[in-house]
Structures are given as structure tokens and as C-alpha cells.
Known about the structure:
Layout lengths: L1 H6 L4 H30 L5 H12 L2 H11 L3 H24 L3 H20 L11 H19 L19 H12 L17 H29 L1 H8 L52 E6 L6 E4 H6 L2 E9 L10 E10 H7 L13 E6 L4 E5 H4 L6 E6 L2 E2 L9 E3 L13 E7 L22 E6 L9 E10 L5 E8 L5 E2 L1 E2 L9 E9 L2 E11 L21 E7 L1
Parallel strand pairs: 1-10
Antiparallel strand pairs: 1-2, 3-4, 4-7, 5-6, 5-10, 7-8, 7-9, 11-12, 12-16, 13-14, 13-17, 15-16, 17-18
Amino acid sequence: MDSDARHTPPRGVPRLSLGALSGLLAGYAAIALAELVSAAVRPEAGPVIAVGGAAIDRTPPAVKDWAIRHFGTDDKLVLQLGILAVLTLLALVLGMLATRWRRTGALGVLAFGVVGALAATSRPDSTSITDAFPSVVGAVAGSGLLYWLTGRLGPHPGTGHAPESAVSDTPDTADAAAPAQTGRLPAHPDDVRSDNGWDRRGFLLAATAAAAASTGAGLAGRTLTGSQGQNAVASRKDIVLPAPSSAAAPVPKGAALRIAGISPFMTPNSDFYRVDTALVVPKVDATSWRLHIHGKGVSRERTLSFGDLLKMPLIERDITLTCVSNEVGGPYAGNARWIGVRLADLLRQCGVRPPSKGGPADQLVARSVDGMTIGSPVEDVMDGRDALLAVGMNGQPLPFEHGFPVRMLVPGLYGYVSACKWIQDIELTTFDSYDSYWVKRDWAQRAPIKTESRIDTPKPFGRPKSGTVMVAGVAWAQHRGIDKVEVRVDDGPWQEARLAAEDTRDTWRQWSYAWQATKGGHTLTVRATDRDGRAQTDKRTPTIPDGASGWHSVVVTVD
């Protein structure tokens, strides 16, 4: 009886737990093997990245904006963790389901492989059906593993036979069951599997082997993916940026205020905001990078290498960038010194004319290596402002997360209509004939940056001491410039703040106000006026469709 008990199929909760474990191992194997295969195809074709990218593409703008607002630059990590959490839950469910219906559970794993394959091949940057391979191979392996592991649990106790014909009806089955029917015991209870029992040792060995093999596959995939980016890393290290033919003037004395808590006038590369849809930062080898310029009004198409750009006259400019997802008082603005090729000069070399001079194209569509499309007004790009194909940032080659080897930027326009990172293609077209990525998602076609200001110090709900308190922050109205900043305490009159020296009209401007603070709770509010005489509006609007507006306020308690 002891021997029979050791071979009795697990029942109830233990059986479901073993099924759930089988599901987890199958899911782990599928993801790990897909990771390995994606290293051979391309990392972006992996199921987690592909499904995540598809989820981003189909997320309503308001939800996407909420994620950026609450998670900031960690929004992509949160998304990937969420996908893995959902996959884990589904793997558990399919594993438990397979304890009774093996084929159904295994087919469920295959179904998610199909979802991953469809997501990978439907991505904007997908160029081959091979992008489906990682998801398909991983799903087949996971499906087979689940079918195999749950088969070692023996027949389902509620049916009296192995789930879905797991046990053959051949004469060998009856012969194998003979020892138990005649009372003869096997030499060791774990050495032989009874068709009416379960293979405890076999299950444990199979589960352990599957976990080890999956871990090995996953690590190999990560290693191969990392090695593929080594050429890009090496190409960046080898770059020596030429001296610009038109250097930026030194930052004026007094442009950077020495006040604790205020944003630095120049934003370090490591602190510069990053908002994009790339779950995996593209690692592009500068030696193989190419830029193709074509489309309406382009009389001389060109394909340029990175070396070609470096041979052209470079200009260096201080430019503040702002993301359209920046809420009033938000952190998604940064100032840097950029070096690059003047985009308008390059377009003229290709025969492009702006609409005001008879050009047929009014939209420039920039395409990234990851499939992102960004549409900019040709008139703005060619109106004399310092629109750039940037190759350097704060004296260094562009960081990978900020667009290496080349990115585009246009002063005065929000990033979603100007700042294409990892750019590889420029097409001249019209707004009537093509909607770029964000326009298809209900954002405006044109989006000049709105006049805004922000209080950096004191912080919201801060507790400064009574007496003189320095209220300070930044204001911006790129390509127009800031003319005045005012501060209001509670419902009192507006008081003019002291403006720091201006670098250029394309950069933000620091400001400060010496407040004689009295004890109690207070609300501090700021507003700016640009060089055109337009005051920052108090009307609160959301970021969608063309950027947030309103006055920034902070509440403090003075001790």
C-alpha cells in the first residue's frame, strides 16, 4: 500500500500547484528561447518588446500621457514588468488547465506565440517575416514542454485516465499495469512509472532540466544581444567631433543663478529628460548609418553617411527642448549645447524650397530606425532658425538614449513634431497626404512651444523659515524669448521677478524673487511674458492635443 500511495496521481491543490509550476516553466522556456532567437534575428523582434511596442501604439493618448506623468522615464520599465506579470498569470492558468486538458493548455501557449509573432511583424520597423521567428520558436518550445511536464503527472483523478489520451491504449499499457494488478511491486517505487500513477522523479528531473536549459538560453540571448551592440559602442568611442565652423558664444555671465534648488542652466546629459516609445534603446553603428533624403520638391536625392555629415560645416548652438507631454510645472524640459549640420542648408542642397518660395512640400517627415515618424513644417525648418541634424550634445557624441548617431531638433517646436532621434530617413511631403505617428493618435499637426514658467524652489509643500525666501525657477518661449516673469503670493498683486541674463531666445531663462515670507500657509504662482508681448495664459489645458497651458503654483507652509 505504501508503494501504491507513492504512485497515486496527485489530487486537488497539489496537482494544480504542480500544473501551475509546469505552466511557469513553460512560459519561462518560451520567453528565454525567444530571447535567444531574437538575438539572431533582431532584439526588437522579441515577444516582450514586440507586444510592448504594439501596446504603446494602441494605447489611448490620455492613458499614455498619464503613464508619462506618473512614471516618468520609468514608464517603459513599468510596461515591460506589467507584460511579464500578465504572462506569468496566464502561464499559471494554462498550467493548471493542462492538468486536466493537456492539449488545450499546450494550444494556449501556441496562441500567445501567434500574438507575439503578429505584434512583431506589424511593427513599423519590421522589414521581414523573420521577425515572427522568436515568438513562434519560443511558443512551440513552451507548448511542448507544458505538454510533456503535465503528462508526467499521470491520469487526472476525476477521469480515471490520463488527460486527453496521454496514455496509449496499446497492449503495452496493460502489460505495464500488470505488476500493480497482481500485487507485484517494482524494485523501487520511483524507478518505474505506472500508467495509473505519476512519475515523481521524472517530473522533478524534467522540471529542473527545463529551468536550467531556459536560464542558459536566456543568458546566451542576453550575451549575444549585448555583443551586437558592441560595434555601435565602439563606433561612438572612436568619434572625435570636429570644431564647429560657427561656435556658440560663451554662456553670458549671470545667466546661471546661484540659488539652491534651481534647475542648472545647462542640463547634464545624464539628467536630460527622455520621452519616447522605444522599449529598447537602438544601438546604431555610426560607420554603417545612412540618411536618405527624398520626396516632393527634392530635385537631388541624397544618401549621406555619418562621415559625410562630419565633413560639412557644423554649427554649435544652445537650445532648450520641451516635450509636449510636459504638464504645467513638469520636468520634461532641458537645455543643452548641441553641435550639428544646419538642416535648412542640407535641404537646399537637395533642391528643396519652403512653401513661401513655391516649394510643393509643406511637411518634412523624419523616420527613425525604430519606425517612429515625426512631421515638421518645412517653413519652420527653413525660416532661418537653427534647425539641426545634431551629432553632439554638451561636447560629446550624442548618448544612445538621446539619438546617437544623429538626431533632429527644431527650436521652438515641441519634440513630437521636431526631435526625431535615431533618424535615418527624411521625406518631403504634405500635411494633407500623410499623418505622422502622433498625429494619427489625435495630437495636433503643428505645435509651437507655448510660453511657460516653473517654480523650482521652494518645492511643493515645503516648509521654509519666515523672512527672506528666494523663489526661483525657469521660464521658456523658444524662438521668441522671455521678456518678463512675475510672481504672486496668495491673491496679492503680481510682483516682477529678477531675470537672469539671456543666453539666446532659443534657451530657457532663469528668474528669482526675494519673498518676505510670513508664517502660515501660502500659495506662490508664477507667469511669464514672451518677447512678442504675449503673457502666459491662466487657462488650464491638458497636454493633448498641442501642449499644456496654465500658471504654475506651489503651496508652502512658512514656519
